[in-house]
Amino acid sequence: MADNYGMMDDRPPLRVLFLHLDWGIGGAEQLMLQLAQASVVLGHSIQLWTTKCDPHHCFAPLKPNTGALHPLLHVVGQWIPPTLLIGNGVGRALCSNVRLLYLSYQVSRHIYRHRVHEPPPDVIVLDGLPTPLPFLQYFWAPTASLLFYCHFPDQLLTTAQTAAMINMETNDEQHDKNNNENTSATETRTTTVQPQMQSVRKGLYRQVMDGLENRTLPFADTIVVNSQFTRQTVLNTFSSLQQPPIGNNDSDVDVNGNSADFLPVLYPALDTTALDNATVHQDAQFLSTLPYYDPRQPPPLVSLNRYECKKNIKLLLEAILWIHNNNNNNNNHNENTVTIPPVVIAGGYDPTNMENIEYRGELQQFVETQLPSSLQSKIWFRHSISDVERTFLLKHALAVVYTPALEHFGIVPVEAMYCETPVIAVNSGGPRETVVPGVTGFLCEPTPAAFGQAILQLLPSTSTATSTSSKPLYDAKVMGQAARRHVVTRFGQERFYQQWKQYVEMAWQKGRVRQQRQQAARHLIHTLIAVADLVVTLWIMVLAVKLLQRWGVVPPTMFSIKAWHATLWQPLIQWFSVAVANEQQEQPVAVDEEDL
Question: At what angle do helices 448-456 and 314-326 cross, to 10 degrees?
Answer without folding.
Answer: 70
